[in-house]
Write a structure and sequence with these properties.
CATH architecture: 3-Layer(aba) Sandwich
Shape: globular
Radius of gyration: 16 Å
Order of helices and strands: EEEHHEEEHEHEE
Largest sheet: 7 strands, mixed
CATH superfamily: Gcn5-related N-acetyltransferase (GNAT)
Number of helices: 4
Helix content: 25-40%
Distance between the termini: 28 Å
Number of strands: 9
Strand content: 35-45%
C-alpha cells in the first residue's frame, strides 16, 4: 500500500512522523512559536503544558532532514497542543515551521489531535483563532469546524477579535 506523500523542499517525503511532545523538543518548538505568532507563548507556558497539565496533550510532527536524507536526524516542523476535558477537546496551539507551510502538515496535526480526542471520549472540539488569520480559519473550516461566535478584542499585539469555532466529533 502506498503511503501518503508531501512535497517538501523539493523532495518527496513520506507522511510526517508523530511523537509526543517533550521538554527536549522545547528549543525547536520555541523557534516555530516565535516565528509564527505576534504574541507567542512563553517557554514556561509550554513547560506547564508538557509537564504539569493533566488535561494537555502535545504532539509534534517530524520529517526527514532534506540535507541528510533518511538516515539523518528528523526535523521537528510542527506541533499541536490541545486539552481533552471530559467530552470536550479544546485546541490550544498549532503551528508549522514557515519553510514547510502549505504542505499539509498543519492539517495532518489537526487530524491527529481530533482522532486522539475522539478516542479519549471527546464529542466536541472548540477553538479560538485570530480573525485575520485566514489560512488558519480556512484550515479549520476545511476540517469541518463552523464559526460559532466572536470574542471581541481577545488577542493582543495587535488587539484583535477571535473567531470562535466548533466541531461535533
Amino acid at each position: 500500500m502506498a503511503s501518503a506523500h508531501h512535497h517538501i523542499l523539493g523532495h518527496e517525503l513520506g507522511s510526517p512522523i508523530v511523537s509526543a511532545g517533550t521538554v527536549e523538543h522545547l528549543d525547536a518548538i520555541m523557534g516555530i512559536e516565535e516565528s509564527s505568532f505576534s504574541a507567542p507563548w512563553t517557554r514556561r507556558m509550554f513547560e506547564v503544558e508538557l509537564t504539569d497539565n493533566p488535561f494537555a496533550r502535545f504532539l509534534t510532527a517530524h520529517i526527514e532532514n532534506a540535507d541528510q536524507g533518511p538516515k539523518g536526524p528528523l526535523d521537528l516542523v510542527g506541533y499541536v497542543c490541545f486539552w481533552v476535558v471530559f467530552e470536550e477537546l479544546r485546541m490550544m496551539n498549532l503551528a508549522v515551521a514557515t519553510h514547510v507551510r502549505r504542505r499539509g502538515i498543519g492539517r495532518w496535526l489537526l487530524q491527529q489531535a481530533l482522532t486522539m480526542g475522539r478516542e479519549e471520549g471527546a464529542r466536541r472540539a472548540l477553538l479560538e483563532v485570530r480573525a485575520s488569520n485566514h489560512p488558519a480559519v480556512a484550515l479549520y473550516e476545511c476540517a469541518g469546524f463552523s464559526r460559532s461566535g466572536v470574542r471581541t478584542k481577545y488577542y493582543t499585539k495587535p488587539v484583535e477579535d477571535a473567531v470562535l469555532m466548533e466541531l461535533e466529533l
